[in-house]
Amino acid sequence: AAVTINLLLPFLNSFNAKLEAHVTDGSNLSSEQALTHLIDSGAAASIQFADVAARTIIQAGLASFLIERPSAAGNATVYLWDSYARMHRKYIGDLCAALRLPKFIASIMGPVPSDLDVNLYDTKVPFFNAFEDSLKRHVLVTISDIVVTNARLVITAAIAKKTKAAAERAEAKRDVIVNIHNVPQVRSPPLLVQMAAVTAQKSIILVGRAGCAAIGNTSGGGKGEYWAELIGGILVSSIAAVTVSKIIGASTELGIAKAEIGSEANPLAGRQQ
């Protein structure tokens, strides 16, 4: 199922979209173009699958590490992380039943939870206990998100640096003097700033979602905790993304302004042979 959802379906959707674009435009599709679309769609789907696989491997590795070093906190973290996927089947199934929707919708949400899982999740607990449970439930996923996302940033930056270096060597071979100020610059923040932003955003989501879950449990038990955590997580994610992007954007503009002031003070700084 994971291969179908994360590899085959994205590949087919991407490839079909490219073919439909030719039909819509009324343009002819050569065998070379079809092969190019096939390769591009396969590469994009493979990257997506590798992303999901890497996150899963990291989560499973961390869970195994905690299991091998048994402790109350570690065992609780692994159990809450593992049982959360089964809660989707329970509460979305209840929602489908209330709305008289087909049962198969809930069946695709995951395995059926045990009575023990449901009873533990439905138990009302003090605010800070519910807050802690939510943190434990999502901390492994958050760590994997931070690691994989930052790894992709590093890889992307390395590829961009290599491409830029190749372009500069090509210019040097032609003995062309390049004025950097006349070359369109991509205003992106430094790599470390981007990585810090990712870490901050994911951490804010983890803590904010835990707060929503604790409020939901206090008012509605397990059902309130589940839906408050789910809906609150979406809202917190949007707020965190907007807030962090504004902060990073402001810092980037400030850095560019300082660089421009420095280059104006030294006119030769913007030229290279």
What composes the largest sheet? 2 strands, antiparallel
Spatial order of the strands forming the largest sheet? 1-2
Shape by Cα distribution: globular
The helix-and-strand class reads mainly alpha
Q: What's the Cα radius of gyration?
A: 25 Å
- Taking pLDDT < 50 over at least 5 consecutive residues as the criterion, the unreliable ranges are 180-184, 267-273
Question: What is the string of SSEs from the N terminus onward?
Answer: HHHHHHEHE
Distance between the termini: 55 Å
Oligomer: single chain
| Proportion of residues in helical segments | over 70%
Strand composition percent? under 5%
Q: How many beta-strand elements?
A: 2
Query: Please, what is the average pLDDT?
Result: 82
Q: Tally the helices: what do you get?
A: 7
Features:
single chain; two-stranded antiparallel sheet; 82% helix; disordered C terminus
Summed up:
Helices cover about 80% and strands about 0% of the residues. With about 270 residues, it is mainly alpha-helical.
Molecular structure report:
With 273 residues, the chain is mainly α. It is 82% helix and 1% strand. It contains seven helices and two strands, in the order ααααααβαβ. Strands 1-2 form a two-stranded antiparallel sheet. Helix 1 (2-25) runs antiparallel to helix 2.
What is the element layout, followed by pairings?
Blueprint: H1 2-25, H2 31-68, H3 72-98, H4 104-107, H5 115-122, H6 127-173, E1 178-179, H7 191-265, E2 271-272
Antiparallel strand pairs: 1-2
Helix pairs in contact: 1-2, 2-6, 3-6, 5-7, 6-7
